[in-house]
Design a protein that fits this description.
With about 325 residues, this protein is of the alpha/beta class. The protein has 9 helices and 12 strands. The strands form 2 sheets. It has an 8-stranded mixed β-sheet with strand order 6-7-8-3-9-10-12-11, sandwiched between helices. A 4-stranded antiparallel β-sheet has the order 2-1-4-5. A hairpin with a 2-residue loop joins strand 4 (about 70-75) and strand 5.
């Protein structure tokens, strides 16, 4: 059961990367990686974030964790603004925020044993050492389905699924309240994906922390998330409870995403794809609604006005002029 209190509040988050050219490396433009994203995550809640590659999902995750510095906007964790905190003042908050990366092998030091990798955060933050640290690491290994005698092994001696379990144990070591999962199962086999996802769900039920879960696989997002946010070209275009979003998608881009999911039953009714063309360049995004260059329902105002997220009831928000504010999608 999720808690409605916001653990994380992100408001108007923007991250632009400069584009440099010439011998003097002058700035000639900027990449609009994240362009005004706002959302919140409650205590014990999982917010799934989906969208095409390059839409800014991972940049949002890294900005929330302050692994990259946002251009503007605010990030509040447990009610405290951490957007502009320096290294020393941010350090205590680091314990509350952890990340599980997409590629488990690349995120593990090949020169360290698995036990040292999981125990390193305890040493860095001065929480445990010696026998106490070893016992804590052994406990973490058991929690993620690994044996204590595997602590002496190196990352190359584990399978892909086991390496991701090591990454999960490392994220759990400091007792975080928020864990960012940046496509944590996309590099794993399907059967292993299910095991890791179920492990994450069981751990959340036990410790009541929150997830920001980024993925391409809509089936995985539907299984683990409480709410789902759909991103397109640096902005959230729809956010809703997972059941409502999958049953009644309101934004044409969301409808196109769901229509692209393969269905095993040939007799099942499918949504009609409502999307044309390629994703525009984030260096020179379209004016108005960023999706208007690919939308079959485009209107004149879509080309000059940018729609904001509008509430259509039951915490369902859509950024589209086709929505008339009554909860219906008006098709021209």
């Amino acid at each position: 059961m999720t808690d409605p209190r916001p653990l994380l509040e992100v408001t108007d988050l923007v991250k632009h990367y400069p584009v440099r050219s010439g011998v003097l490396r002058r700035t000639v433009g900027k990449v609009h990686s994240v362009d005004g994203v706002s959302f919140s995550i409650g205590v014990g809640e999982t917010l799934g974030m989906v969208g095409e590659s390059g839409c800014g999902k991972s940049t949002v995750a890294r900005s929330v964790l302050r692994l990259v510095e946002p251009t503007s906007g605010s990030i509040r964790l447990n009610g405290e603004d951490i957007t502009h905190l320096g290294k020393a003042t941010l350090r205590p908050h680091r314990r509350s925020m952890q990340i599980i990366f997409q590629d488990p092998f690349a995120s593990l030091n090949p020169r360290m044993t698995a036990g040292d990798i999981v125990g390193e955060p305890l040493t860095v933050h001065g929480l445990a050492s010696g026998e106490k640290k070893r016992e804590r690491v052994a406990e973490l290994f058991q929690q993620v389905g690994l044996r204590a005698d595997q602590m002496k092994n190196y990352p190359h001696q584990f399978s892909g699924g086991q390496r991701q379990r090591i990454c999960i144990a490392r994220a759990l070591s400091l007792g975080p309240s928020l864990i960012v999962c940046d496509e944590p199962v996309s590099a794993l086999d399907v059967s292993i994906q299910a095991q890791v996802i179920n492990l994450l769900i069981d751990l959340q039920r036990k410790y009541d922390f929150s997830y920001l879960f980024i993925a391409h696989d809509l089936a995985v997002v539907a299984h683990i998330s409480h709410r789902v946010a759909v991103m397109y070209l640096g902005r959230i275009v729809e956010i809703a409870d997972k059941a409502k979003l999958f049953a009644d998608p309101r934004h044409p881009y969301t409808q196109a995403l769901l229509a692209s999911v393969p269905i095993a039953d040939p007799k099942a009714k499918r949504l009609v794809p409502l999307i044309d063309g390629d994703v525009p360049s984030p260096i020179n995004p379209p004016s108005g609604c960023a999706f208007h260059t690919r939308c079959r329902y485009v209107m004149d105002r879509c080309k000059v006005e940018r729609p904001e997220l509008a509430d259509v009831g039951d915490r369902h928000q859509v950024a589209c002029f086709l929505n008339d504010g009554t909860g219906r999608t008006q098709i021209p």
